[in-house]
Structures are given as C-alpha cells and as structure tokens.
C-alpha cells in the first residue's frame, strides 16, 4: 500500500495523484449500476470511510446509510448533504474506455459512469468533511451525509420511502444540499425546484368494423385528434423556450409522445387505441388548470375518451432564493466570496430533492462542476480532476457556513 493514497490489493499505485482523486476513482469502480447495483460494495466502502472520519454511522432499511458529524449545538436543525449511490446503465460499445475503470487521460479527465452523476459530489462531501475535521474545526449544527440508493429508478424504495420514516424525522434537517448539473461555462448552476412528471395514457374507444368500409366514429380519428392537441401544445412550448432569452428547459412544459397501442389485424378496425405521453411541468404552472386543458382536448377529440396517469406528481414546493432567506443568503454569499457566479434554474428532470422539498425541507441542487459539458447518463461521462478537486474546496467553505447559520426564530 502506498503511503500517499489508499490503493492496495494489487492495483497500480497512481504515483503523485491527489489522494482525493484516488478515492474518487476507487468509488467509481464499484459497480452500483442498474439493473443490479452492487450496493453491498458501496456500503462496505462507506463503512470504511465513516471509520476513518470517526463519524457515527447508521444503516436504515438495510440500504440507506448516514454518517453524522455532531455539531456543538445538536438541538439546532441539521444540514443534510445528500447523494445517491446508484448509477444508470452504460452502452459499453459507445465508450472510449471501460465505463467502470475510472481511466484518467493525459489531461486529467476521469472517465466513468457516475463521474458527474453523482459520485463526484459524494467524495467531495467526504473529503471536505475530512479536511475540516483534520483542522480541528467544530461546527454549530450537526451535519448528516446521507447515501441513498435507487434515485435513478425513481427513488420509490429510496428517498420517497425514507422521508416518511421516523428515523428521517429524527435527523431534524433544516436545509439540504443535493445533486445538480454541470455547466459548460464559467458559472455554476443551482437548482431550487423541479418540474412535475406526469405520465398519461389516453384511451380512445371507437366503433369497430371491417377494414373495407367507412366506419363512423373510429378510434383512430380520435387518436389523431388527441395526438395533435398534445403535439401542438408541444410546439408552442418549444417555441416559447427557443424565443426567450431568460427561459431554460426547466421553465417550460415538455411533451413527448412515447407509446402508441392498438389494433389486431390489417383488415379489422380496432375498438380502442391508446397513446401515452411523458409531460414535465414547471412548478409555475397551475396544475388544476392544466388538467382541465387535457380534459378539453379529450372532449374535443370525440366521445367516451378517458385517460389515466401512471405518474402524476403534484408537489410544487420550491426552495426560497430570496436574499432574506437565511439558508439561501448564506449559500449564495459563500459562493460569492469564492468569486463563483450562480445561475438559478428549475431542474429539467427529477431528483430526490423533490421528496425532500415535499416534506417541507428547503433543498438546493448543486454539483460544483463548471467548464464541464453536461454528460450525465451519456456515453463517455467524465470529469476533470482539477474541477473535481476545486469542488472539495467549495464544500469546505459551504459546509461550515451552512452549519454555522445562527439559530433561526423557530429554533429559539
Ligand atoms: Zn443523479
């Protein structure tokens, strides 16, 4: 085993490499990839880290692990540093390198699934806490590092379940940090809300009959009308996004037709045809009004059309980014002292933050990666080691700033 790093068991010692980078690469090699993530490997890894950091380590529901660094005033609300341990599958043939080898090229770009989403953040939290502890720092509020599974498959067995667990409430969280996205420019993107995913299937019944005749009231005619209504709306939203300087993807509703079902034979007019859409709705949209609009489209398309939702999120909580909010003002002021420019956005997809916000806890999605192309879930996902290392310094400033936010009026 090399003195400067933690590499052993026959691996090549990356001479001169920063020990945080070595630890990051070790974590990237753990195959916590769907559909069969090796969570046991992640838990063994985290267990070892907790021991190194002398943090209290707890395991809940057999899979959610939490390391706790107790504050000097543990009665105050705590700070949650959340990260998920799973990663999405890869199409290995599309990758330049083995997606689980954590190959580092001459420029210091580390290639692996999870470099951006979000094993970088996990190790950055850990290393920032490690450095703060090594300096003998004491923070006022308790800091919890939470490592949660199944985010990439909707979080139902992970965060969605855990936020309603009595042990979660006991953590007494006041503010949470969770994942964000890379930013190709100089700025850093922060997310204060998410769009609501609605997965809807519209059933279009019609008169069946022989394929040689002009049957009235067919399922196909209704289907076409429904599809046109949804896709016309899609065009309008796309146009709105493309013609406005200040809108990002998170500010508009995306509509995509994802499945069509129906029919049994060439010469048989079917009695029903179904179409499904994936909608992502920003928190600024009135959801009741929006559903009325859908109802209207169905009504206009013909008789007896029904719809059902496979997923219909109604939570429109957003985290305050007002300057008088104690958490946000601390977060943004600390970033300012590091000369970081922040761009505030609504997250275009979904993360575990939506479950945290749903139980009333403010959460900011933030992965400190600027000058980095957005490659989450993509082939050849990578992160440069210098950007990664800079992120540790960012958290080393943010964590104490947040954990030292003075007692709030409701904590007195
Ligand atoms: Zn993620």
UniProtKB/TrEMBL annotation:
One of its GO terms (molecular function) is metal ion binding. Its cofactor is Zn(2+). Coiled coil: none annotated. It comes from the Eukaryota. It is found in: Cytoplasm. GO terms for biological process: amino acid metabolic process. This is N-acyl-aliphatic-L-amino acid amidohydrolase. The lineage of its organism: Eukaryota, Metazoa, Chordata, Craniata, Vertebrata.
């Amino acid at each position: 085993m090399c003195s400067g790093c933690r590499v052993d068991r026959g691996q090549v010692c990356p001479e001169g490499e920063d020990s945080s980078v070595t630890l990051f690469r070790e974590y990237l090699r753990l195959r916590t990839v769907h559909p069969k993530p090796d969570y046991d490997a992640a838990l063994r890894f985290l267990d070892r880290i907790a021991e190194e950091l002398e943090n209290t380590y707890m395991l809940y529901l057999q899979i959610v692990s939490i390391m706790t660094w107790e504050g000097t005033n543990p009665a105050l609300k705590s700070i949650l540093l959340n990260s998920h341990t799973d990663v999405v599958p890869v199409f290995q043939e599309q990758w330049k390198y083995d997606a689980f080898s954590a190959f580092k090229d001459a420029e210091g770009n580390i290639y692996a699934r999870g470099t951006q989403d979000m094993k970088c953040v996990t190790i950055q939290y850990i290393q920032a806490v490690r450095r703060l502890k090594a300096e003998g720092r004491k923070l006022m509020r308790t800091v919890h590092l939470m490592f949660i599974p199944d985010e990439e498959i909707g979080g139902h067995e992970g965060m969605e379940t855990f936020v309603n667990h009595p042990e979660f409430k006991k953590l007494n969280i006041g503010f949470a940090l969770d994942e964000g996205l890379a930013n190709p420019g100089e700025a850093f993107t922060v997310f204060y809300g998410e769009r609501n995913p609605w997965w809807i299937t519209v059933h279009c019944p019609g008169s069946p009959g022989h394929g040689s005749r002009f049957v009235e009231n067919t399922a196909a005619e209704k289907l076409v009308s429904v599809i046109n209504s949804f896709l016309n709306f899609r065009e309008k939203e796309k146009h709105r996004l493309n013609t406005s300087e200040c809108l990002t993807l998170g500010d508009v509703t995306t509509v995509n037709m994802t499945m069509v079902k129906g029919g049994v034979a060439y010469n048989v007019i079917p009695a029903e045809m179904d179409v499904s859409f994936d909608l992502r709705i920003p928190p600024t949209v009135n959801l009741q009004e929006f559903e009325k609009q859908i109802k209207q489209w169905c009504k206009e398309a013909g008789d007896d059309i029904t719809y059902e939702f496979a997923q219909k999120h109604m939570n429109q909580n957003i985290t305050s980014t007002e300057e008088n909010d104690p958490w946000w003002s601390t977060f943004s002021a600390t970033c300012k002292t590091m000369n970081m420019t922040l761009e505030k956005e609504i997250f275009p997809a979904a993360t575990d933050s939506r479950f945290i916000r749903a139980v009333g806890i403010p959460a900011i999605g933030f992965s400190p990666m600027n000058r980095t192309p957005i490659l989450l879930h993509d082939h050849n996902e990578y992160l440069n080691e210098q950007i990664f290392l800079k992120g540790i310094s960012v958290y080393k400033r943010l964590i104490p700033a947040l954990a030292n936010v003075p007692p709030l009026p409701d904590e007195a």
